[in-house]
Structures are given as C-alpha cells and as structure tokens.
Amino acid sequence: MAAPKAGLFQNNYRGKFMRTVVAKFGGTSLADAAHFRKIKEIVAQDPDRRILVVSAPGKRFPEDIKITDLLIACYEKASRGEAFDAELEGVAGRFGEILSDLGLAFPLEEEIRSLKSRLTENPERDYTVSRGEYLCARIMADYLGFTFVDPAWCVCFTESGEPDAAMTARTMSASLRPLRRAVIAGFYGADENGTIHTFSRGGSDVTGSLAARAVTADLYENWTDVPGLLAADPRIVKNPRTVDYLSYRELRTLSYMGASVLHTDAVLPASDLGIPINIRCTDMPEDNGTMIVRRLPKEKLRRPVTGVAGRRGMSVIQVEKVMVSDGSGFSAIMLDILKKRSLPFEHCLTGIDAITLVIRSDLLEDCREDLTREIREQLHPDFLGIRDHLSMIAVVGERGTDSCDANVQVLDALTRAGVEITTINQGAGKLNLLVGVPEEAYENAVRAVYNVIEAEAAES
Ligand code: ASP
Q: pLDDT of 368-403, one tens digit each?
C-alpha cells in the first residue's frame, strides 16, 4: 500500500476535523520554569499543537550540567559501587526548582527514591538515563493539563537495543491517535520485555519524527535554541544567513557534511510521509525558522546554493595505471580491497587511467601499510599515493537555476582566494558540488565560497 500523505486522514477527534502539529522541545527549551512558561504560551498560540515531545532539561548557562549528563554520572558511579548522591541530588534539585517555581504538586521525592533504589540494587544504563525525559514529560503534562504518554508503551526496540520502526509505527499510532492532547517523553522506548532502551544522544528528535509519522501529522516542529539551519558554520562565517527553506535531500547532505541541527535519524520517519519539518527557536517564537520539505517551492529554487558545509580530516588515495578503464575490473578490485577491511569511502572519482578515493584519515590509521601493500600486489599500479590533511567542502543546493554558473563562481572564488583545489566532484543529480582543499586553507575556502554565493544571490 502506498504511504499516506501528511495530514490527509486521521486528524479527526470525535468526528471533528483538526490539523495536527507535533512539537518537540529540546533540552535548552526546558532548562528552567521560565522556559516551561514559554512553551505554554507557544502551545496556547496554536491549538493544532496537540502532541508534544520533550527532552530532559538542558543547560541554563554554559558551565551548567544537563540532566542527562548528571544521570549518566549517577549510573557510572553506581555501577562502580561508588556513591552517587551528589549527582542524584543535582537531578532532584533541578526538577524541584521547576516544580516549586510553577507551583505544581508532583511526587518527585518518591520518583527519586525509587530511582535511587534501582541504581543501588541493579543499575541499568538506559533506564537511568531515560529518567530525565520521563520526569520532564510527566511534569509538562501536569503543567499543561495534557495526557502523559510513556514511550515505554509505544516506542519499540528489539532486545538487542535496535529501534523497531515498523512496530513503533503501529503501536505509537494506536497510542497517540485517540488522544486529544498529549505529552510524550523523547529519547527512549522499550523492548517486549519492558527493558528500556535509548536512542543515541539527541534522540528526542527521533521520537518527535516517529510521533509525527504515527499520527500522520501536518507538521513536525522542532523547537530548539538556534534560529534554524545556518547556511554556513558560524564559527567560520560571521552571522551566516538562516536558511528559510530546504529539501530533505539538502538537509541530509548538509548534515552529513557537518551542519548540525537535527539528529540524523530524525529525518526519515517524517520525510517518508512528506511531513514538513520546521526548526523553530523557543526564545524567538515569532521567527519562522527553517522549513524542511520534500520539494522546494518554485520561488525558492531560484537561489542556486542553499548552504555550505565541510568536513576536515580527509585523505585521498590515488591509484594510476595505464588502461584502468579497459574493463578488466580495476575499480572493482580496488573497492573490494576496501570492502574486505570494512573501510567505507566518502567519494570515488575515476579517470581514464586513475581512480581516486576520498576516505576519512582516522580510518587509515591502523591499516595504511597493509592497504598499500595489497593495492600494489593486486593492481600493480604505475603510481600509488595517499595525501592526508585535506578537507572536503560541500556546496549544496537543488539548483533550480543553472548549476554551471554557481559552480564557476565557487571555483573562481577559491582560485582568487589562493586556495589549492585538490579534487572536484559533482554527481549528475547536481545537488552537491564537492571540492577538496588542503586542511590549512579550509576556513578561508569556506568564507570565500559563502561570500560569493551570498553576493550572487543578492544580485539575482
Ligand atoms: N536528553 C538526551 C540528550 O541529552 C536526549 C535529547 O536531548 O534528545 O542527549
């Protein structure tokens, strides 16, 4: 059966048609009682925000410790048989402050006592770490008067701790659809024995996306502490533009190349049904943030480049041999040599007499000699070289306009900035132009590319 489209059916509660927005709030958006109040206002502004997904309270100031990190410390100390009172008091204190500031009655002491006895008798990592989200969601549900949903009932994992997407889609749908308004804890779920498992760090984004999929939401909002996805790394480019619209494909490419705004596993569940994802800033709720969609609206296609990202720590393996492309399986043997060592490569470029592979330098650390020996033995190359200390820059855009123009501008800007270009790669899909540069030129190169694409967009 074809997947249903976002928001087309279901969204009716007791016979009334309604839009459904799933709104996920990250740790900094829940750091203190003032943020709980902000969330209440945000929810009141749009009655379609029916399903809330919450992380655990994050940092209030740079030196602060996230609740999740305090819980990890509790578990680590408990599992070594050491005292963990200070860390657990830290957790209790943070939630206690929020509760008293909001004037809520909540059985916090009982919850902390029960966590303490589990930690003492049989410390379990994922169970302990998940308590930040669990408590936060229960408190938020009480505060808003929403129904609390424990993901242990409906976010499914296998016994070995792998997320079970198909089962989750069914159980989460059955749990959430009948509810008018609910708060579900992010980050964890359970296997069929009831054992708690967590996603990797930042995994509440994944819960949000799964919830959006389960209720066929019209929109998945991801509320965080940044104004949206930035068009370049703000540590390199001063005040980069916030991207207003981008496609799932662009987001995936930019995230892979280092831009971070959402957990990488959080795109697929929502994108499967074409549910738009909106990154919003809790402290600037009037801003529209970044909208991530399947297909960009026509007017957004005019800007040739959406963003620039990059990865350092790359190496290039270059193998040359006359007649590489004569059909004797040269490239296949080369890739087989990598496969045997489970060495993933990032990019592969071939020429008449050469094959070039871009690979993460840290992966070569333990196998460099062995690898070059085998390449020599099996392929007898005319030339074999590995160049380290490279960075790859990705210039990403769906390119509604002529991508050639954008590419010329980028390469010209790099040349004028005196940056050596070590590799160039663009697939037929034209989503992504990849340029290799020496590591020491990386920041300069990103700035040069960003400046030229922004100047170009301003003129058009
Ligand atoms: N609280 C967890 C973490 O700090 C999960 C999340 O925030 O999404 O990673």
A: 999 999 999 999 999 999 999 999 999 998 865 566
Cα dist from 350 to 287, 311, 373, 401, 441, whole Å: 45, 22, 21, 27, 25
What is the number of the ligand 1 atom nearest to the C-alpha of 56? 1
With contact defined as beta carbons under 8 Å apart, do 282 and 223 qualify? Answer: yes
Q: What is the third-level CATH fold of 307-459?
A: VC0802-like (3.30.2130)
For residue range 338-374, list pLDDT tens digits in order: 999 999 999 898 888 889 999 999 999 999 999 999 9
Query: How far from chain centre, in Å, is Cα 37?
Result: 27
Q: Is 228 in the pocket of ligand 1 (CB under 6 A)?
A: no
Q: 164: how many CB neighbours lie within 10 A of its CB?
A: 17
- Tokens encoding 111: 């919850």
pLDDT of residue 376: 95
Ligand 1 pocket, 55 CB below 6 A? yes
Tokens 């390469």 locate to 411
pTM over 0.85: yes
- Domain residue extents for the chain: 21-293, 307-459
State the closest ligand 1 atom to the C-alpha of 67, by its place in the atom list counted from 1. Answer: 1
- pLDDT, average across residues 293-314: 87
**Ligand 1 in contact with 66 (CB < 6 A)?**
yes
**DSSP code at position 19:** -
Residue 204 Cβ inside 6 Å of ligand 1? The answer reads yes
Q: Using an 8 Å Cβ cutoff, are 233 and 258 in contact?
A: yes
The predicted-structure confidence for 411-458, as pLDDT tens digits, reads as follows 999 999 999 999 998 877 778 899 999 999 999 999 999 999 888 777
pLDDT of residue 297: 84
- Whether 224 contacts 26, CB under 8 Å: yes
Residue with tokens 């209440």: 40
Token pair of 297 as six digits: 């609206």
pLDDT single digits (tens) 55-74: 999 999 999 999 999 999 99
- At residue 4, what is the residue type? P
Q: Is 186 in the pocket of ligand 1 (CB under 6 A)?
A: yes
Please give the order of strands across the beta sheet that includes 354-360.
347-350, 354-360, 307-320, 383-396, 432-438, 423-426
Architecture per CATH, domain 21-293, reads as: 3-Layer(aba) Sandwich (3.40)
